[in-house]
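Predict the structure of cyclic-guanylate-specific phosphodiesterase.
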Amino acid sequence: AKSTGHNLYFVYESHMADNIDAHLTLGGGLRKAIDEEQFVLHYQPKVRLCDEEVVGAEALIRWVHPELGMISPDQFIPLAEESGLILPLGEWVIRRACRQLKEWRESGVAPLKLSVNLSSRQFMQADLVDMVERVMQETGVDPEYFELELTESMLMTDAQQSIDKLHGFRKLGLTLSIDDFGTGYSSLAYLKKFPIQTLKIDRSFINDLGLDSDNDAIVKATIAMAKSLNLKVIAEGVETRTQFDLLSGYGCQEVQGYLFSKPLCGEEFLRYVNSQNVV
Ligand code: C2E
Ligand code: CA
Ligand code: CA
Ligand code: CA
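Done. Here is the predicted structure for cyclic-guanylate-specific phosphodiesterase.
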């Protein structure tokens, strides 16, 4: 351990070299990757609790790296944020998702709602609403079936500006969801100042369901309060029947997680929907 001069120690471990190398390699390749469209979207089904029908999906990006293979978003989204490349990348995600939504519509499957994640830097982009409007017009999607997932911290950075932006999105007709709910510091009552329609309870709360009575009480109360505020509630990271049954008892409307399916490529997703939903 080497002293940095403060009360901090920089502990050098051998695996860090790999991380730093990976960081540089990935960061350097990102621009090229965007130009060459080395990305794919995977789709994780969202399942309605009452009848277990697939009613939608979340689009999750993966980088198909020519040498390193499939790279998860946690490894490159932060790099894209730092470098500002999240702006062109984020636009690619929205365009790809809109095209996918259009394809599903034309393939004759029952209407499915598709959500995409926004990152904080992307959310701060001045012409974001215009960009989304332009892409939706270009691709001709029905805005009712398009949803954006935003985090509490993103909205709290500049609350008034966020509210204006969210109203801009609402005018376009799409729906807005709060992702990772419960991990930030905002209360539901405060969040109601924002024109949002859906609340997604963070995986960390779902993970502990049935194991910790305080945690269960929080989830139950959150669902009850969200419903009384007319918000739809979805739980992420649902892995077991026990979690599913508890959520069902609490009145949660939708679930997403490995219990039903991991994120799937476009083709696999359609096959999954057709095998699950009774036509
Ligand atoms: P997130 O928005 O919270 O997405 C949920 C993550 O949980 C996904 O990881 C998903 O594969 C994983 N997951 C789903 N079900 C389960 C489960 O039952 N158990 C467990 N343990 N995990 C589950 P993924 O795809 O690696 O994405 C990680 C994060 O990367 C996302 O977290 C999101 O913040 C970010 N991300 C993904 N795609 C995009 C994108 O297109 N744009 C931006 N800005 N961020 C993205
Ligand atoms: Ca999300
Ligand atoms: Ca989430
Ligand atoms: Ca989460």
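The first strand starts at residue 2 and ends at 3.
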